[in-house]
Amino acid sequence: RFLNNAEIAPYISGANYTFFVPEDQAFRNLGFDRLSDEIFSSPQGVKLLLHHFVRGRLYDRDLKDNEVFETIGGGIIKITRTFEGTVSVNTAKIVESEVFVYNLGTMFYIDSILYPDILQDYISKKNSGHELAGRPPLLPTPSDVEIVPKEFYVTEPSDSEDDEIITPKALPVRFMYNPKYKI
């Protein structure tokens, strides 16, 4: 529903994309199902949806543990694989993988929304109207985390890459020391 109303086709022309599709329950869990369809057509709504797309077709074999990819929306996603076989994209678990869509690319269904804080202002406005009263705040930021704003630019789509099937390369991984855990 949200994808159809957002008119993101100009940003994802062609068939060389991987789309991490949140299940309907993911939208309900955050109260996004109560937002108007126009919100997903807004710049913030389009940005949220584009954070679920990666340029190039990814397959299950490409989703290696600790691989990092950049989304079309400019976000970063990190793949995590457990020994039990669970695969996650950031904190969202993949619940169905490698669904092929002829005119789009590869889809992976996930159990939560990536970067939901993009629509935090809309949820806050709804909370002030008591529509979502009693729900916990959306993803509070821990006190030891510094939020660094990132500009989002939407570029005009290019037809030059539309016909070529590409597999994106992972971004370099940076390991960070966490003093909570002893090595």
Q: What does it look like?
A:
The chain has 183 residues and is α+β, with helices and mostly antiparallel strands. The chain has a domain at 5-125: FAS1 domain (Roll), CATH 2.30.180. Helix content is 15%, strand content 20%. The protein contains four helices and seven strands, in the order αβααββββββα. The chain has helices spanning 2-6, 24-29, 43-50, 120-128, and strands at 17-22, 53-55, 68-70, 76-81, 87-89, 92-101, 105-110. A seven-stranded mixed beta sheet has the order 2-1-7-6-5-4-3. The longest helix is centred in the last third of the chain and has 9 residues, at 120-128. 25% of the residues are buried.
What are the low-pLDDT stretches, counting only 5+ consecutive residues below 50?
128-138
Main beta-sheet strand count, sense and barrel state: 7 strands, mixed
Q: Any idea what the CATH architecture of the domain at 5-125 is? A: Roll
Oligomer kind: single chain
Which radius of gyration do the C-alpha atoms yield?
17 Å
Topology:
Blueprint: H1 2-6, E1 17-22, H2 24-29, H3 43-50, E2 53-55, E3 68-70, E4 76-81, E5 87-89, E6 92-101, E7 105-110, H4 120-128
Parallel strand pairs: 1-7
Antiparallel strand pairs: 1-2, 3-4, 4-5, 5-6, 6-7
Features:
alpha+beta, FAS1 domain, cell adhesion molecule binding, 4 helices, Adhesion/Biosynth-related, globular, FAS1_dom_sf, 183 residues
Summarize the structure.
With 183 residues, the chain is of the alpha+beta class.
